[in-house]
Amino acid sequence: LEYSSLPRLTTRGARGRTSSTMASFRAVGYATPSTSTPRSVAAPRRVARHPGARVPRPRTLSDDLSGSVAARSWNPLSVLAPPDISGDLLASVATLVLRGVLRSADDVRFVVDCSAGDLIQGRVDGVTLSGERWVSPLNLTCERIRCVVGAVEIDTIALLTKQSVELRTTPEGTCEVSFTARDFGNFLVHPQFENAVRRSRREWGFDFTFRRDGVRLEDGAVVFFGTRGGGGGGGAEGGDESEGGDERDESERGNVVEVRMRPVGRGVVECVVAGSDATSDDATSAALERFFRELVVNLLGAELRYGDMAVDEARVTLGLKLRVIKFPSSLNGVI
Length: 335
Prior knowledge:
By secondary structure, the chain is α+β, with helices and mostly antiparallel strands.
């Protein structure tokens, strides 16, 4: 082998430029010598792949949000409100507040129609209240009650921070109350009912005092007793008036009569008075019919107006028009 047969290696300048022979070496994959400073080159990494291995997909924005605490419990009032704010929260607070008004109750139940978003803004589409066998501190009793009101706005901050129901608007609706004969007797002498009696006496001379005892239900009518004449008993709303606040026996101030009251149409009752004076009986009947037709009772902010009545052998049910000026609370007084 002669030296002259070997390929020639030539360098041109300090930058290590190669000849055409050197370029052919590079084309077939041979390493080429260089005059530059030698550097270590890391070998390419080899990744072992198993036949069953899954290649994870890239995470998306929705993946990040679904796993974040902010996405699960976001709420503009998150500092004050629980993550599950909804109509159930308002129902729970309302139930707690109303139970505080009552002495006892077998059932108090609120159903609130609203979304969490609406409640945050204080908007409620409607509320239904139902209950059984209620007894108030002043012995207002009923067998069953059901109240329904429409749209109302509430103070959400007060609901969350003070656990109270404060109204921004005045909702209206209906209320049905079922009384036993004994319950109805309690209703006729309750202080708020007596306030309505006094108001009617001041405004148009109503002169009748209702009695608790002797109430009975028969032949589609509720039968009760009362005293007519003698100033009607009682005094000004919330207290006694001077002309009617003495302690004379009712028999000395008027005579006791039996009244048979039955519904004869929506908003209208017929009262038949069984007394000894036909002329007085007719006048008393007309006065009682007007009194019930215009009856308004305010129970700690819940204003109830007479609407209708139904009577069977077990109960008398009053259909009342409801206007909630203020949500009833023990902070407002007692009933």
